[in-house]
């Protein structure tokens, strides 16, 4: 049972990147999320609520600093999700750095701030699918990561968020945990 390797995405699963990315660019996350949910559920980017193009939004200078990434807030379910997953197998954080060097060091600091200086259970790469194998499980909020991981022979579960097809699922952690549990007990 312990021989599963569970790869856990950070942004959008454990950490609320989007709320801070909105806030630092002058948007009110609550307003944007509620409009996103009602007018464009499942869309990757809320084009009806944000006048910037996605590329402009995600490459804004404000998202390049180490501090931005280091100070992101964990979702309220983070500790519960991580603890439960650890009871099913080895858990490794798997996170893709953006193009900015500050992102990589900020994410590194975030994990050390949370778990302590000796913590080393993480892999930073954009190529998450390279880690797929028959005993590997990926939990990620991006459909393209899920499909790439599956096409290399891993199992992947999409983490429900307003920007993916599982937007209508109200309890994202219960959804994912019950799927992981089912797979492991098969
Ligand atoms: Mg993500």
Could you describe the 3D structure shown?
The chain is of the alpha/beta class and about 190 residues long. It has a single domain, classed as HAD superfamily/HAD-like (Rossmann fold, 3-Layer(aba) Sandwich), CATH 3.40.50. The chain contains 8 helices and 5 strands. The protein has a 5-stranded parallel sheet, sandwiched between helices. Helix 7 links the parallel strand 4 and strand 5. The radius of gyration is 16 Å and the shape is globular. The termini are close together. The model has no long low-confidence stretch (mean pLDDT about 95). Magnesium ion binds next to loops.
The residue ranges in which pLDDT falls below 50 over 5 or more consecutive positions are none
Q: What is the mean pLDDT?
A: 96
| Tally of alpha and pi helices | 8
C-alpha-based Rg, rounded: 16 Å
Largest sheet: 5 strands, parallel
* Count of discrete structural domains: 1
Q: What fold name goes in the CATH topology slot?
A: Rossmann fold
Query: Can you list the strand order of the major beta sheet?
Result: 3-2-1-4-5
Instruction: Name the CATH class.
Output: Alpha Beta
The CATH homology group name = HAD superfamily/HAD-like
> How many angstroms does the end-to-end distance come to?
10 Å
- The SSE string, one letter per element, is EHHHHHEHEEHEH
β-strand number: 5
Small ligands present? magnesium ion
Shape annotation: globular
Which helices and strands occur, and which strands form pairs?
Blueprint: E1 5-8, H1 17-24, H2 29-39, H3 54-58, H4 66-70, H5 78-86, E2 90-95, H6 101-115, E3 122-124, E4 136-140, H7 143-151, E5 155-158, H8 172-185
Parallel strand pairs: 1-2, 1-4, 2-3, 4-5
The structure holds magnesium ion (MG).
